Model the fold of this input.
Amino acid sequence: MRVRRATPVDAEELARLRYAFRAEEAPTVEELPAFVVRATGWLRSALASDRWVAWVAETDGHPVGHVFLQLVDKVPNPAEESERLGYLTNAYVDPEHRGAGVGTRLIDAVTSYAQDERLDCVIVWPSERSEPLYRRAGFRPPPDMLVLSPPDD
Done:
């Protein structure tokens, strides 16, 4: 198994993995072929930009997991402080490859990138199932953040 940076060429496979990820969480309202077409264009554009970075885990050349990091620019600061942060999202490993360290390797790729790029912080909204993975990687609840969520309808 290897983890590598994703490129726009990976967009279609990443779209298929994204569909599998979300289909595990909730009933889908869009068929796989239509979603793959729609998401592939978005993913190609995102991965060609300087706003998104993704990694793909492969076994025998076949994608079995991925993770995305959206890069967010902060307002310029005259002090010694990083002017970018990361939003980690869409971490997914195929069910048959879970428990073999794939998720850990993907998150390690994100944290290494964050350190190399000197990001101010990386935020993530973990699921109950994924929280232990993020905690093992060093993620902790922030003491100084407030979140506004839209009211339930």
Observations:
- The first strand starts at residue 2 and ends at 5.
- The CA atoms of residues 56 and 66 lie 4 Å apart.
- The helical segments are 11-25, 32-48, 102-116, 131-136.
